[in-house]
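forwarding from the other thread:

> can someone predict this with magnesium ion?

sure thing
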Amino acid sequence: MLEIKDLTVEVEGKEILRDLNLNIERGEVHVLFGPNGCGKTTLLMAILGLPNYKVKKGSITFKGVNITDFPTNERVKLGMGMSFQHPPEIRGVKLGDMVNIALGRKEEKIDENVIDLAKRLNISVDFLNRDVNLGFSGGEVKRSEILQLLAQSPDFIMFDEPDSGVDIENIELIGKIISELMDRNKMPSKRKKAGLIITHSGSIMRYIKADRAHVMLDGRIACSGMPDEITKNIMETGFEKCVELCVRREEAGAE
Amino acid sequence: MNKKETIERARRAKTKKAALGEDIAIENFVTGREHDPLNSLDDFPEEYQQDLLDAGIEPSEKDRSGSFLQQDCSVVFSTVKYNGLELMSTTDALKEHDWLKDYLWKAVPVDMDKYTAEVELEQTHGYFIRSEAGSKVTMPVQSCLFITTDKIGQKVHNIIIAEEDSELHIITGCSVSHAVNSALHLGVSEFYVKKGAKITFTMIHNWSRGMEVRPRSAVVIEDDGVFISNYILMTPVKSLQMYPTAYCVGRNARATFQSIIYASGDTKIDSGSRAVLQGEGSRSEIISRVIATDNAKVIARSDVIGEAANAKGHIECRGLMLSDSAEVDSIPELKATRKDLDLSHEAAVGKIAEEEIQYLMARGLSEEEATSVIIRGFLNVDITGLPDALARETKKMFDMSLEKVM
Ligand SMILES: Nc1ncnc2c1ncn2[C@@H]1O[C@H](COP(=O)(O)OP(=O)(O)OP(=O)(O)O)[C@@H](O)[C@H]1O
Ligand SMILES: [Mg+2]
């Protein structure tokens, strides 16, 4: 579904991603780990095509279409979606309005369709009427993002730390919805969707079985492997050691 | 002050330039011919009906407690459907009520500048609206000052009185026919909110590129009185300068000014709101949203003067720039003359944040659609204090005028 080749991305004139390669097939969910500032968010923003993230080299192909030069909304039309790590506040634009927009409706009203979706995330009508992200708590931001994606229902979904700052009960709630959004509750052969999740705690992974994990270091995918194993290695030894282990094993395998 | 003295003071102020705004040569504008009265608002010529609608006027008079329409310098329609409510031309009202003269030039000084003086000396009607003591007229009164003739100078004096414990809601529109290239509107409005009374005043200015406009408004609010003004201007105007002032003279008097301005083309606006807190515990809130695009120049003023114990005033002004050749000066002022009060202001002028556009694009909108959603949001001030039906309607009028500009 998504194929990234030799991608080099600059932000504000600074090279953040270098020769990055990544393939995500239909029906797959990948998880991306990596230390603060290594470029995880940058990768998602670049996939989504936000203008500050300049592709200097390489290509992004989505559903067989080379979208490297597509504006964001065209990519969204093709079926991409993302939950933001730090979404901006927009004064006078309500969360309910955002849900309508994500639903692709010109509708102004916050009606039953919107309210029913919100209920699934324990979001009240009052909350739908608040200006989006303005004064939202950390956990509320995450639920609001998932709600918008639930409305949008993209085929390929990127989640930028959907679990950071979320309490235990809500992690379960969010985890189940994310899992459903990516067809995880379906038989592997029936899965039409795909996703890429950034997480630090990994706590959300209890509810979403990922197919593959990657560790990013300094703007590159430094190693990839089975999610359980990679998570375990990171927890026990840290990112650098995890990558060393990974690389050594690959070398061993190559011999 | 008797009539003779008033006229004398007006005469002396005939050439007195206004403190703010560029000087207008009043003598370039004429009174024009009289227009015939209408039997109903529907009889107003077809070509003006849309402009009437754009100014928030409901031609069917549905859900209105009264209607008033002045075309150029003639009052062409005036009806009241509600007991306890009076609505008529100020000229007629002065003949009917001997006491009314005591309300003239009490809130606005007749010699404030040449425009007030001109209205005293060359007045052509204006409306008189009064709610009797204790009568709550929740259905709004609609009034419209309409200009249909080129080179006309419309000089109105409006008097609005809410007697003790009464409630009065007014929708007023100022509009101009698209056939008019240049015209002048001078409007003096004096509001009196008596003890425990409430006035909400929702005004839509639907001007055009050739209009020069000098409203002169003031409000006197007594004990526990409430005055709420909602002002909407979305169309271009050649030159508009106004600085309506609310005097909260009574204990716990409250004044709210909300204004929404979308300035485009070569529009020049100098617009402010002022509250003078003279009554103990009186309060004011001034909220303004200004969007400037094209070559528009806007000075957005706001001023709160706190003179009484436990007075409270807040100013919130936001400006949004959509063009590099537009200009917004935001000038909030606070003045306190004692220690036991609380005045504050927030002001911000900026451009649309790229981040916000991208966020909306990430939900599927094009750049233009995203921009329009943000602009709508920016102008979306929650209108408080209006009865529900009126609030909904005001929102609709606002959406309609926004649709027209975007
Ligand atoms: N607009 C910008 N201007 C300058 N530097 C930027 C900008 N955006 C990102 N960067 C830099 O790019 C690097 C990668 O940032 P990115 O947000 O992708 O990290 P991350 O892996 O998501 O980190 P975290 O785990 O903290 O979310 C950081 O050093 C960051 O400071
Ligand atoms: Mg990040």
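Chain A touches chain B at residues 48, 50-52, 71-73, 76-77, 81-82, 84, 87-88, 90-93, 97-98, 101-102, 104, 131, 148, 152 (CB under 8 Å). thats all i got for now
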